[in-house]
Amino acid sequence: MQIRRLTPSDIPLLRQLNAVFADAFNEPETYRLAPDDRYVEQVLGQDHVIVLVAIEESAVVGGLVAYDLPKLERARSEVYLYDLAVAAAHRRQGIATALIARLRVLAHQRGAWVVFVQADHGDDPAIALYEKLGMREDVMHFDLPVP
Predict the structure, then answer these.
(1) Dist. CA 146–CA 3, nearest whole Å
(2) Domain coordinates of the chain in residue numbers?
(3) Which residue among 44, 49, 103, 124 has the highest number of C-beta atoms inside a 10 angstrom radius?
(4) In what order do the strands lie in the sheet with 112-117?
(5) Architecture of domain 2-133
(6) What's this model's pTM, rounded to 2 decimal places?
């Protein structure tokens, strides 16, 4: 298995990753209607956007999307792990753990002091993975609509 960070020229790999997300999250309407290539190139070209994929035999079998968030209380950042999924046939092989390990290395290289992630109540596999790797904080999450 190879883990690599996507660049603006990796649009086909991003499309494969979105398909993995669509299946894993059961949200085809969200992840299969990806934006056009120009938008994807622009976002993948931004330094604070971190997209990692796990590739086996030239196919994306998992990946993550994270964002480096610069802070103002200190000269450091936090990395927010937003999406993480592994294709069903490839789970329980250490792929998610390997993706997070690579993200932690990148976060350290960027001067981040922590990687943080959310999990939904009832998503026991994700909760178990994150508890294995870090400390749990029980917080509430709110979506505030933008007018």
Answers:
(1) 35
(2) 2-133
(3) 103
(4) 2-5, 49-56, 59-70, 77-86, 112-117
(5) 3-Layer(aba) Sandwich (3.40)
(6) 0.88
Which two three-digit tokens encode residue 71?
């802070």
pLDDT 10s digits, 77-128: 999 999 999 999 999 999 999 999 999 999 999 999 999 888 777 777 777 7
Quick check: helix, strand or coil at residue 113?
strand
- The tally of CA atoms less than 13 A away on the side-chain side of residue 104 is 12
Distance CA 91, CA 54 (A): 12
Instruction: Quickly tell me which residue has 């939904």 as its tokens.
Output: 120
Q: Which residues pair with 64 in a beta bridge?
A: 52, 84
List the one residue out of 88, 3, 75, 13 whose CA is nearest residue 44.
13
